[in-house]
Amino acid sequence: MTFQLDGSYRPVLVVGGGQAGLSMSHCLTTAGIGHLVLERQRAGHEWRTRRWDSFCLVTPNWQCALPGFPYQGSDPDGFMVRDEIVGYLEDYVRSFDAPLVEGVTATRLCRLPGGGFRLSTSAGEVTADHVVVATGPYQVPLKPRLAERLPGQVVQLHSSEYRNPGRLPEGEVLVVGTGQSGCQIAEDLHLAGRKVHLAVGSAPRVARRYRGRDVVAWLHDMGYYARGIDEFGDAEAVRLRANHYVTGRDGGHDIDLREFAKQGMELYGRLVSVQGAELSFADDLRRNLDSADATSEGIKDSIDKFISEQGLNVEREARYVPVWEPADRPRTLDASKISAVVWSTGFGRDHRWIDVPVFDGKGYPTHRRGVTSCPGLYFLGLPWQYTWGSGRFCGVAADAEYLARRIVEGGRASDVRWLSGTPVTTYPSDAEWVAPRTVA
């Protein structure tokens, strides 16, 4: 029988069944708050369908710490591959019997005149006092308009559609973009023996290990993942920063684009135009490589300072020396040389179904720690929602707990349907929310 929502009511609705929505569900369950999680596809859909075959986490498994469900496998310092991530989320759903309904699409959310919300879905309408939007930031794959100018024989796909080298036609491949996805896909193709052309952007990089530990472990101890967005003077710019590229593949290692070039990968600056069969690139390759290296070395400087301040007895390590320099690099590429392009150019948001005025001029939800100006409407799972860890397996728990506390405080005390009868968890105060830390 098809699930139907017509005329029903829930104290809280959670839209989205990824790690954010499931974390919210766990916190609400712990607090005894009746709720329902609606997922358009299946739980963990993004991990199932928008990741390539060799995909793995770039953060160690020990950082997988969803509420009430820390990683308990045999390889805490390893990096879960795609199918293991999906399995981790499936086990999480079962661990607390999440009230999850899959295959239901939210089509319109509106505010009711007397308070609360009406959500229209593919399974009917439902009302609620509170709604948590946990649909994540990666909703609409983005390609630049110049993609329309490429010759028709060139196969084009977004990074979310890439699976493995064997699914691309034979021949040379252009990868555009060097965020985490672009660099890892370029490596995947390179290791498979494909000739790769890589348009290098301004994303920073980070070393995998330094002075005997994974750099993530150092940054964790230094408090970087818990540092709040309100500690920055340029909060909006911080939210737009690209993630550092590195990989957990084969036990984890650096991604060094200079090393790829030394091995035969062709590097270019940013792709700026397509005229007929000629692709033109900006003269910024050296600057982009140098900037990425400088970021990585700057992080090492911070680690050195932390080690010194803490009086730790840790052996020193030689610093990175560039293995290749981009002297006299080509700034054009004949499209007839390539058979395919992988656009690693990011994603956009699609909140058109939310008919509540909580967005800025760029379509970004205005909020503070996920709490919007509309009472009862919240967002969860956004990058830098409050900390660098927000939206990640390591930080989404704190954000979900914070919102659960806000929901408990804002519940309708006169409505006995609002709570299930289970004692409400006492969540930490604002001052206690971020654990004590040392920031280098």
Automatic annotation (TrEMBL):
Keyword Oxidoreductase tagged: yes
Keywords: Oxidoreductase
SUPFAM superfamilies cross-referenced by the UniProt entry: FAD/NAD(P)-binding domain (SSF51905)
InterPro entries (alphabetical): Auxin_biosynth/cation_transpt, CHP04046_FMN-dependent, FAD/NAD-bd_sf
Source taxon at top rank: Bacteria
Gene3D superfamilies for this protein: FAD/NAD(P)-binding domain (3.50.50.60)
The name this protein goes by in its record: MSMEG_0569 family flavin-dependent oxidoreductase
Native source organism of the sequence: Amycolatopsis ultiminotia
Lineage, opening ranks: Bacteria, Bacillati, Actinomycetota, Actinomycetes, Pseudonocardiales
